[in-house]
Amino acid sequence: MMSKSGGTSSTLSAAISGGYKREIYRAAISGNWVKASSFNQTHPNWMRIPLTDDGDTALHMAVSMEQTTFVEKLIMLMSVEDMEILKVDGNTAFSMAAISGNVEIAKLLLQKNPRLAWIKGHKTCFQLNWHLQLINLLW
């Protein structure tokens, strides 16, 4: 089940102040897993919360900054549905990895949630069309 950043995510977002969102954002872009995981106690849904106006979650941010170890640890906490959260532009974190050609992160994401490969992203393109190397990875 895909969900745009909004709905339940916006309700969760409202429950976390801007200061916490900034801290989660900074932890995700820098790959600081110790800091990010410290929110498990106080804000157990932190990984689902849109951190930017574009709907970026911690997973989107870590993928865009190529924080592979952070992504690997984060997806262990996430449900497959959490991994399908769409940014405002319609892209998942997997589509961001595919667009940038980050095979290592794309493979991590697909291992946990193979459905990600078939979710239409920005401009309704299947993510597998973004990068030939990812198609080879799957076959």
Descriptive terms for the model:
139 residues, mainly alpha, Serine Threonine Protein Phosphatase 5, Tetratricopeptide repeat, two-stranded parallel ribbon, 3% strand, Ankyrin_rpt, ANK repeat
- Strands side by side in the biggest sheet: 1-2
Name the beta content range.
under 5%
Structural class: mainly alpha
Helix content: 40-55%
Shape: globular
Tally of individual domains? 1
Keywords: ANK repeat
Main location: membrane
InterPro entries: Ankyrin_rpt, Ankyrin_rpt-contain_sf
Pfam family, one: Ank_2
Please give a structural write-up:
By secondary structure, this protein is mostly helical. It has one domain: Ankyrin repeat-containing domain (Serine Threonine Protein Phosphatase 5, Tetratricopeptide repeat, Alpha Horseshoe). It is 55% helix and 3% strand. The protein has ten helices and two strands. It has helices at 8-15, 18-30, 33-37, 39-42, 58-64, 68-77, 80-83, 93-100, 103-112, 132-138, and strands spanning 3-4, 85-86. The chain has a two-stranded parallel sheet. It starts with a strand and ends with a helix. The model has no long low-confidence stretch (mean pLDDT 84). It is a peripheral membrane protein. InterPro entries: Ankyrin_rpt, Ankyrin_rpt-contain_sf. ANK repeats lie at residues 89-113.
